[in-house]
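Reposting from the mailing list since nobody answered there.

I have sequence plus structure tokens for a pair of proteins and want to know whether others read the tokens the same way I do. The first protein:
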Amino acid sequence: MSVTYRFSLAAALLITWCGATGRSLRFSLRQHLFIALQGALLFGLNYVGVYWAEEYAPSGLVAVLFSTIVFMNPVGARLAFGTVLSARSFVAATMGVAGVALMFLPELTAARRGGDAARGIIIGFVATAIACGGNITAARNQRAGIEVFPGIAWGMAYGALIAAIAATLRGAVWVFDSRFAYVVSLAYLAIFGSIVAFGAYLTLLKQVGPGPAAYVGVAVPVVALTLSTLFEGYRWTWTAALGVVLAVCGNWFALRATRPAVTLNTVARSP
């Protein structure tokens, strides 16, 4: 339900902003179908899958699973756009995933084999694959001339609809928590966690392509642990510190390996 509220609010704010700044929100039926696909994958089913996985597996394990998108995105870009796969990128991806695994090593060690944890792993992998599909669809839409923010506005509306259907099918009783803390957190996620974050991410995806952009999934746990240190008293271990070093080095290595020949704009000009 919160995913529905979050993306509904974000979509409403973005649609209002696009209208006020003269950005066209008019698309053909074909364009709407692809925007709906992007929204369903990136803002709907992806989030439902991650939250569902965390019902069965520790959040640290799900974070490690989601970081494997650094492998999925380059493969998806190769299949969809013919982007060259470089050994360097896969080395960087390995460093990134290994770094995230070290950051959450205690949770991974505590996770039980089989049972609920196994179910969470399967759902987490499926959610990651769905997110990869959303990334590739977003890249396709950008190649087709759909601007980032109008596309996000409609995409989030479609994603909210998908999340609402999923919640209803799972028997959710529709209520709204009107407490100040919930409302403020919802507004934060709608504005900064959705509009700003996805606006920046999809702009990055347009500039460097789906492969390098996926390293956001490796960088997020680093930022999360930093914030946890500041506000939650997180105590660092040598394995977590090594994980951060590996993740940062993997990001640097991947972005350093990025060449104009494999960016989205160059691919768009290819025959």
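The second protein, same order (residues first, tokens after):
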Amino acid sequence: MRTFNELVTDYTTLSRDASVANLALGKVLINRFIKKILMARDFTFNRGSKEITGIANRQSYNLPYDCERVKNVKVVVGTLRYFPKEVTSRQVWTNLNRTVVSGNHTSRYFIEDDTIEVYPVPTNASPVITIYYQKTNQDYSATDYTTGSAYTTSASPTKVTGSPTTIVWASAMVGRFIQLEDGFWYEIDNVITTYQLIIARDASKVMTGSDYTISELVPLPYGYSDLPLYGALANYYQNKEGSIDQAREWERQYREGLERLLRRDAKSVGTVFEKSDLEDTIGLYDINKWPEDIS
């Protein structure tokens, strides 16, 4: 895994131009090629999921901050699991909800702006709504944060606690990654206070560490993180007189790497069928839909 700032540093080194103007250009080009690569396919590595604990009699919930497009929804009530189908028309959704219907058999959902609504309105005190989605493509620009030195992880361990006198963590760091003493990068899921945060998965061990780094990671799989750098350098040398050979070499590395990435992802989904396709083709019947406790 490589950070955005590492690519920017490599860009200024390989372009042999550390000027402020070229530094700014490098950030723009690298961001542009990150987006270009992620738009080449509905990549499996660019997907995410988020669990939302529902509330009884509440129909609408906020989507994850990095959600570009919802792909599927699962609702768990007790031991029952439901996979509702999407309603794509506001008019159809309005007609469906003309009369308030309550129950724990979630059969439909509707997306509008940054919210998801479920039907019927849940009666269970805490249904678990899992949203599977394609991630949005953001612009990267933040500098690495390494202020302070002392931290500990909890017994879970998903909570990281730093020194309250030297560390100032902010909510803007949600979605970035923190590297701890074990060398691994952990996505920041939530910032509780200025010195406490939650990581998205358990750390490898309980740690009482010193140095750490919070950074923006390039959202590409291991071994492919340099692709935006290759594209940026190809673009740079294409516009520099007398550098056509270097431009072609960087473009070759970019294109070959992108082709390998496309083949890699194609293999990972080659035998996967969508649930809706199976239902339509062979008529699978979901026994979890009964009893339908709609009132």
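Reply #1 (J.P.):
I read it the same way you do. Residues 271-288 have pLDDT under 50 and may be disordered.
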